[in-house]
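=== Structure Prediction Worksheet ===
Name of assembly: unnamed complex
Input type: mixed (protein and possibly other molecules)
Chain count: two
Listed entries:
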Amino acid sequence: MAEEKAASPLPVVPFLKIPDDGDPYLEGHKCKKCSAIFLGERAVCSSCGAREGIEPIRLANKGELYVYSIVHRSFPGVEVPYVSAVVDLDGGGTVKGNLIGIDPVPEKIEFGMPVETVFKIAPRKDRDGNEYLTYYFQPRSA
Amino acid sequence: MSDVYILGTDMIKFGRFPDRTVPDLGAQAALMALDDAGLSINDMEALYCGNLMQSNAMVGQRILREIGQTGVPVVNCANACATGATAFREGWAAIKAGLYDLVLVVGVEQMGKAGLLGGGGGSTGIPTEGLLGSSTMPAVFAEAGQEHARKYGTTFEQFAKVSVKNHHHSTKNPKAMYQIETPLDKVMGAEMISYPNTKLMCSVNVDGSAAAVIASEKKARELGLGRAVKVSASVLTSDRFTERDLTMPDVNTCTREAAAKAYEMAGIGPEDVNLVELHDCFATAEILHYENLGLCKDGEAGRLIDDGEVAHGGRVPVNVSGGLLSKGHPLGATGVANIYEVTTHLRGEAGERQVVGAKVGLTHVIGLGSACAIHVLERVSD
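=== Predicted Assembly ===
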């Protein structure tokens, strides 16, 4: 009898992929016709209207900080302050996420700074007690 | 196609009215606008009603139950923060199409305790707010402003000056929520909500309503053009696909496209505009729209606020009403209240805050998601 495997974490969003054998990654969907990149699967390209040829691609784990805001007031129960970051990934795709590993003050954060994606177990569980794997961005040396 | 004229318009003083109802607030503005036009509900051939938070609850018909159930067609509009302007535009389009000669437009909202942080996340899995960045409105518009800071070096202080200006403007507007001078140190030192937007750089959460009576040219001439104001352009756009739009809402492209169409339709350029009421939902947003509306070249918005060109008495005063930052932002009423403000100046009836000699004015709103509505209004009489 096979040994019972510990329940593996669920992805925080559908575009976070957790392969059985390999590292987690963020997945984009790219339109072959116009090269627009989307997060999540879709049937029709909202950039050019193409109805076919939208294919999954593996998004890079490296990119640069496009813009950010330092959030001091959020929904009840959300720990603040934190840095909400919009990151342009190398090779295409723009993703929003928390920027960690940096003081949440404007003096420390630079537009265009190199960042990388890291994957960790989220500090929140769902109603059924399931764990989730989430992604964050953190500074990296260029 | 017929030109369209505003014959009457008014708004209630924005505030917090927890003991009243949405139809009651809407009815009040409707009656005020009818009185301003010297007409009655029996003269109206249709009602276009803008309301967001009760958009499934027949607000327009409930207004008529309070002021006259005449059996006319009623259309209820919802289009995020462009709701009121969309209702106005639908009325405009119906007159243009020759369907009616006289139409009533009402925008109304009761915000109650709803905050401006905006909606929550999805219903399955775990909440992602504060985990995958922020989708709160202050953060979204902070990030939009930061794009300008990244490109042009715009500073926290420059963003904050927008709020100082608009709060100053509303000290002269008795219908604004606030009439309180709010100096720079107070704005910058207020509670930080989402850098660089402090609490005083976020629009004010209020209840409110505004209304307008609009007419075909034939009807306007018949009734007399005395205080009439011409609607020289009405444009609505949605968010075209842009590179980061799915992650970071793009409020610039839809505004630029709407502005270009509006100037073309009105046969004017931005240099002809004497006053602007634009969508300052957050102080960061106003800076972007100076450039989006062509009030200055790209990269010059910081200088515009520094030099006072957009202040009352400047080259092109922006949000002399106090704007959403100080007059208040009752979502569905905002677009119609902008029309009221500009019309009042074009009529020369704005009292202490009158933009002297105003002949052409522009109104602008953005509903995130996104919808952008622009109207250009022109004085008729000399």
